[in-house]
Amino acid sequence: MNRLAGATSPYLLQHADNPVDWWPWGPEAFEEAERRDVPVLLSVGYSACHWCHVMARESFEDADTAGYMNEHFVSVKVDREERPDVDAVYMEAVQAATGQGGWPMTVFLDAEARPFYFGTYFPPAPRSGMPSFPQVLEGVVSAWRERRDEVAQVAGRIVTELAGRSLAQGADTPPGEAELAQALLGLTREYDERHGGFGAAPKFPPSMVLEFLLRHHARTGAEGALQMAADTCEAMARGGIYDQLGGGFARYSVDREWVVPHFEKMLYDNALLCQVYARLWRATGSDLARRVAIETADFMVRELRTAEGGFASALDADSDDGTGAHVEGAYYVWSPAQLAEVLGEDDAEFAARYFGVTPEGTFEHGASVLQLPQETGPVDAARAASVRERLLAARGRRARPGRDDKVVAAWNGLAIAALAETGAYFDRPDLVERATGAADLLVRLHLDDSARLARTSKDGRAGAHAGVLEDYGDVAEGFLALASVTGEGVWLEFAGFLLDIVLDRFAGESGALYDTADDAEQLIRRPQDPTDNATPSGWSAAAGALLTYAAHTASEPHRTAAERALGVVRALGPRVPRFIGWGLAVAEAALDGPREIAVVGDGAAAEELRRTALLGTAPGAVLAAGEAGGDEFPLLVDRPLVDGAPAAYVCRHFVCKAPTTDPAELAAELGTVQ
Predict the structure, then answer these.
(1) Structure confidence by residue, pLDDT tens digits, 78-110
(2) Rounded to an integer, what distance in angstroms lies between the CA atom of residue 647 and that of residue 626?
(3) Rounded mean pLDDT of 27-33?
(4) Which phi and psi (to 5°) does residue 655 adopt?
(5) What is the DSSP pairing of strand 647-652 with strand 622-626?
(6) Cβ count near 536 (within 10 Å)
(7) Is residue 98 part of a domain?
(8) CB of 180 within 8 A of CB of 171?
(9) d(Cα 664, Cα 236) in Å, to the nearest integer?
(10) Spatial distance between the Cα atoms of 403 and 439, rounded to a whole number of angstroms
(11) Cβ–Cβ < 8 Å for 652, 593
C-alpha cells in the first residue's frame, strides 16, 4: 500500500515508490507498531537535502534493506519543513545524546513515540568508524527482542530529561544598552576579519546577525557594527555561495572563504539576504548591495514563484551532469573548456579571470564555482555583461535542479517582506505586486475562518499540518511590511488576526512562547526554542511582529507581550549573540521606540515624504501613509495637513514631535541616506 501517494510534500512523494513500506507521521503508524510489537523507524529529511538523497539511493531504494525494514519496523517518513515540531523534538534528543545533529535524521521509537536510539546518515557499508545502516537495524532489532527492559528504561529516561528542559525566561524586560553592547562585543570576538562572517567552516550566511548589526549601527552610530555587516556582505556577494550568473544564494559554504557552496538554494535564505542587502544599500548607498538585492529578488520571482502566486521552498543541490548521474553542483560549475565552448577562446580567457575559473578547479574534477574576485584593474563592464548573459543562457540548457514546490507559510512571509521593501526602495512595482500576490495566496489558501494558519500548501491545496509559531510571526511581519509599502490597511488587520492567535494559543507564563499552539498535536514535549536556526526563531519572529503591530495601533497587550518575550534575549544575547540575532534586532527596535511615522496628504510632496520615511534607517520604524484623518491606519487619525501641505509626523509610543513638511528635516530625523 502506497501511503505517501497523496502527500502534499514533494519530499514524501520522492519516497512514495521506494520498496520501503513508509507510513506518514500519525497515530495509525504507532498503532500498527503496537499491534505488531515492533519499533518505529523515524526518518526525517527534506527535499533539497543532499545526504537525504544519498541515503535514499543507497538504502531506501535497496530491495534487501527495504525488506528488512518492512519485516522488523514500522517506518515513518517526515518532511521536517512540513512538521518542524516533530523535527525539533527529536533533533533535541539526538543532539543531547550524540552532541551533534543533521539530516537525514534517523530515530528509533517505541509505540509511545519515545526515542531510544539515534543517528543521522548511515552508509550502506561500514565507513570511517561509522556502522552500516544494516548493522544499525540489526542491532536495534536485537536490543528490542532481547533487552526490552533496557530499551524501555532508556526511552523513559530520555522523555523525562526532555520534559525537564522547560525554558527559564531569564527576565521580564527587553535588553538594554548594556546587554546589546555586550552582544556586539561577543560578535566582534567571533568575527572572521579576513573573510567576513563568523566562525570557521562550514560557514552559513549570518542573516539575522547582519540585521542586528545594521540596526545597532543605525541606533548608535557604531562604525564597527556597520563594517562587519558590509564586509561580510561583500565577501558573500563575491564568493561562490552567491550565484554570479543567476543571482541568489546557496545554503552555506563548506569552507570559511565562501568559495564552495552546498548548492541547494532555499527560499528563506534568499528572502532574508535580499532584505539585508536592500537595507545595507539603504544605510550606505552601496552599488554592490543594490545589485545583489535586486538580483536576489529577481531570482526568487523567476525560479521560485509558483503558478498560484506563492514561493516554492527550495532548489536541489543535485542535478543531472549530462551522463544520467545526479551530481551535486553540476548545474552551476564550469571548467575552462566549457567556458571556451560557449564563449570562444578570447572571451573564455576573460571570463576565467573575471570569475576565478582555474585549470585545477576550485570544486571537483577540475570544475570551478564562479566567484567575483576583487578587481585589480579596470573591468570592461559591457564585455562582462555579455559574457554573463551568454553563460547564463548556456547554463539554462543544462538539466535543471529539482524544485520543492511546497509553499511554506513562514518562508513566504519572509519573502513578502523582502520583495515589498526591495520593490519600494528601487522603484520596482512588479516586486511589490509579487509580494502582494503571495500575501493573497496565504489569505486565500492558508488562513481559515478563525485566522488559523496551515503550515504548507502545494498546487493550490492546503496541507493538513497546523502552522507553528514561526508561521504566525513571519506571515504577520510580511503583512505589516506590505501595509507600510502599499498603504493598504487591510494587511494591518490580517496581521492583527494572526497576532491575536499568538497571544491566545502560543503564549505561556512570564512571557514565554511555545513553538506549537496549546491545542496542537501533543508530542513527547511541547517544543520551545528562542534561538535562531536557518530562519529567525518563532519566538523572536513573533516578538518582532507584536512590537511592530503595537507601534501601528498603540495596543498595550501586544507591546507588553513583545517586551516580555524579549526577556529571553536579555538573558541569552550577551552569551550567545550569534544564535539569537533576530531577537537582538527586535530589541534594537524596542530600544529605539520603534519610531512611528505618519505621512498625510497626497501628490508629489506627500510621495517625497513617504519615500524619505521608507528609506529611513531608524530600527524597526513603522510607516502609515494616506489621507489626513484617514481611518485605515490608527497612526493617521487626528493627523492634519500643515497649512494645507502634506506633512510627516514622527512619534514614539504615540507621542509625536512637531510635524514637518520638509523631506530633508525628516531624513535627518530618520537617518535617511540622501
Answers:
(1) 999 999 999 999 998 888 777 778 889 999 999
(2) 11
(3) 95
(4) -105, 120
(5) unpaired
(6) 30
(7) yes
(8) no
(9) 34
(10) 21
(11) yes
- Grid coordinates representing 380? 570592461
Question: In this structure, are 369 and 432 located in the same domain?
Answer: no
State how many domains the chain has.
4
- One domain for residues 216 and 355: no
Backbone φ and ψ for 100, nearest 5 degrees, come out as -155, 165
Residue 118 to residue 131: CA distance in whole angstroms? 13
Specify whether 341 is located in the same domain as 211. Answer: no
What is the per-residue pLDDT for 214? Answer: 98
The model's pLDDT over 264-322, given as tens digits with 9 standing for 90+, comes to 999 999 999 999 999 999 999 999 999 999 999 999 999 999 999 999 999 998 888 77
- The answer to whether residues 365 and 479 belong to one domain is no
* Rounded Cα distance, 307 and 78, in Å: 25
Nearest to 313 by CA among 435, 442, 417, 404: 404
Question: Is the C-alpha dihedral spanning 533, 539, 545, 551 positive or negative?
Answer: negative
CA pseudo-torsion sign 391, 396, 401, 406:
positive
Q: Are 200 and 258 in contact (CB under 8 A)?
A: no
259 and 370 share one domain: no
CATH number of the domain bearing residue 558 = 1.50.10.10
Contact 605, 647 (CB under 8 A): no
Residue 253: other Cβ atoms inside 10 A: 27
Computed over every residue of the chain, the mean pLDDT equals 93
The letter for the amino acid at 267 is: L
Residues 6+ apart with CB under 8 A from 637: 629, 630, 631
Residues 527 and 514 sit within 8 Å (Cβ to Cβ): yes
Distance separating alpha carbons of residues 555 and 548, to the nearest angstrom? 10
If one compares 171 and 284, the residue with the highest pLDDT of the two is 284
Nearest CA-CA partner of 657 in 670, 644, 646: 670
Sheet holding 596-600, edge to edge: 622-626, 596-600, 647-652, 655-656
Rounded distance between C-alpha atoms, residue 377 and residue 486, angstroms: 43
State the Rg of the chain over Cα: 26
Parent domain of 131: 10-163
Residue whose entry in the numeric block shows the C-alpha cell 528562542: 530
Query: Phi and psi for 117 in degrees, rounded to 5?
Result: -150, 145
Give the Cα separation of 374 and 74 in Å (integer): 55
* Spatial distance between the Cα atoms of 178 and 191, rounded to a whole number of angstroms: 20
The dihedral over CA atoms of 597, 598, 602, 605, expressed in degrees to the nearest 10, equals: -40
**CB count in 10 Å sphere of residue 374:** 6
Cross-strand pairs, 108: 41, 117
Of the three residues 592, 607, 639, the one that is the final residue of a domain is: 592
**C-alpha 661: how far from chain center:** 39
* Whole-angstrom distance, CA of residue 244 vs CA of residue 259: 12
Distance CA 137, CA 462 (A): 36
Q: Give pTM, 2 decimals.
A: 0.94
CB 375 within 8 A of CB 246: no
The residue type of 224 is: G
User: Which of 75, 64, 54 has its CA nearest to residue 120?
Assistant: 54
Length, in residues, of the chain: 674
